[in-house]
Write a structure and sequence with these properties.
By secondary structure, the chain is of the alpha+beta class. The chain has one domain: Sortase (Sortase, Chain: A). 22% of the residues lie in helices and 24% in strands. The radius of gyration is 32 Å and the shape is elongated. The N and C termini lie far apart (104 Å).
Length: 271
């Protein structure tokens, strides 16, 4: 029988690679508590950054598109239910004479979270059509619906101060561009009966406890209202609750559904 050659096992520290060179095996590193905590913190940081990105950019884009789609759908439903459009007034009829013949409807105050209208602001974009509902709580109205009506304040077209609120950031940020309004810009509130057109007049910044902006005559609670106003409120500055930004407007006209959409919806926005 041939002579057998025994092969002595080599220690782990003296293993050779394919070229015959000796290499030293590295011992495995043991996971330390500090290392595990560090990795968990990094993971949590990434998740937090993704959440912030969702809230401030991605989610806002999606929520905003959803709000406009819901408002547009509601407008289309009302248009389909409307009677035929009445003919244009003759040249002998002046706008004032025609306006005097229009009865301005006043809606009943909506219940909390009840959708009653759609706001259009050409300055905010031609596709801007945000639903409006009763109440100004975040959970009930502002987050899931869009624009909220302050309970107890007048309704659109009614004498006094029609007051509403909406987010300036997050959840579609309906009033994100409120500071960009220019004097004379149209603020149109559409309901099933037609359109109420207001014209923007001025901006104001107040502290959160200055509730006189909601008075029948804004900032003048001792005066009885003899005009029709709109007050739009939101947070200021961006991403802060330190102040409130207030946009005031005055009522211009009501256009009944059967007369067709008002020119204020499609008029050009000056630079």
């Amino acid at each position: 029988m041939g002579e057998q050659t025994s092969v002595e096992p080599q220690p782990a520290a003296a293993l050779r690679d394919r070229s015959g060179r000796r290499r030293t095996a590295r011992p495995r590193r043991r996971a330390s508590v500090t290392g595990v905590i560090g990795e968990l913190l990094i993971t949590a940081g990434v998740i937090a950054m993704l959440y912030v990105a969702w809230q401030l950019w991605i989610g806002d884009f999606i929520y905003g598109a959803q709000r406009n789609a819901e408002g547009t759908e509601l407008s289309e439903q009302w248009a389909q239910q409307a009677p035929p459009v009445i003919p244009e007034p003759s040249a002998s009829e002046t706008p004032d004479e025609t306006a005097d013949d229009v009865e301005i409807p006043v809606l009943a105050e909506p219940a909390d979270t009840e959708v009653f209208g759609v706001m259009h602001v050409p300055r905010f974009g031609e596709d801007y059509a945000v639903p409006m509902a009763g109440g100004v709580t975040r959970a009930g109205t502002l987050d899931p619906i869009g624009i909220g009506h302050y309970p107890g304040s007048p309704m659109p077209g009614e004498t006094g101060n029609f007051a509403v609120a909406a987010h300036r950031t997050t959840y579609g940020k309906p009033f994100n561009q409120i500071a960009d309004l220019r004097v004379g810009d149209a603020i149109v509130v559409e309901v099933e009966e037609g359109w109420y057109t207001y014209r923007f007049r001025t901006l104001e910044y107040v502290t959160p406890n200055e509730v006189d902006v909601l008075a029948a005559v804004p900032q003048q609670p001792e005066i009885e209202a003899d005009g029709k106003f709109i007050t739009m409120t939101s947070c200021s500055p961006m991403y802060s609750l330190a102040e409130r930004i207030i946009a005031y407007g005055v009522f211009e006209s009501f256009t009944p559904r059967e007369a067709g959409a008002p020119a204020a919806l499609t008029e050009g926005v000056s630079a």
